[in-house]
Amino acid sequence: MNLANRITVARILLVPIIMFFLLIKVKFPHIRIEEFSITYNQIIAATIFIIAASTDSLDGYIARKRNLVTNLGKLLDPLADKLLVTAVLVSLVEMGKVDAWIVIVIISREWAVTGLRQIALLEGTVMAASKWGKAKTAAQITAIIALLINNFPFTFVDFPFDVIASWAAAIITVYSGIEYFVKNKHVIDFSEKA
Fold it and tell me: Signal peptide position in this chain (predicted)?
């Protein structure tokens, strides 16, 4: 359990804390500025999410820089990312902030690509993250943050950035998933009998 893996585990442990602040049924005070309103628990959840999301690059950087890459890290890192994004997106559906179909599309892609990666590992192949995979992660995090903070500051100019970012995240997510399967179609042997 090296430093990089500890950071990854910390990201996993932050997931239930974020969900607690998003889904707790206690009346928290609101901050109001003209038409804009946000609760303190949303601000806390958004802050923790940003910290957790930023550790994704940090643990990978530390693992590579200090030569701490382990099989445990290879397993935990993508799992932590998916748990974080999935939990927050499901919470946002519960809060009525994002359409369920967008979340279903994103989660389906995430687990489909995870399955493909597992098949590749069994074949002794490591699937590297593509530029579209990285763009997908950035788009998802941007959309989630915009939704968590109630479209601040775009709400002041009546610009639905959070909605556009959600759609963009869904489209980029689907495209990057298709790209993974097209580039790695050799991994799946359809001729093999069960």
Answer: none
Instruction: Give the Cα separation of 137 and 54 in Å (integer).
Output: 11
Residue 177 pLDDT > 60: yes
Residues 6+ apart with CB under 8 A from 121: none
- Predicted TM-score of the model (pTM): 0.89
- For the purposes of burial, counting CB atoms within 10 Å of the CB of 190, is it exposed (0-12), middle (13-18) or buried (19 or more)? exposed
CA distances from 55 to 50, 79, 132, 146 (A): 9, 13, 20, 19
Q: Quick one: which of 88, 77, 95, 115 has its CA closest to 169?
A: 88
How far apart are alpha carbons 113 and 181 in whole angstroms? 8
Distance CA 49, CA 14 (A): 8
Using CA atoms, how far residue 46 sits from 75, 88, 133, in Å, is 26, 10, 23
pLDDT tens readout for residues 92-115: 999 999 999 999 999 999 989 888
pLDDT in tens, 112-122: 988 888 888 77
- Looking up tokens 């775009």, which residue turns up? 154
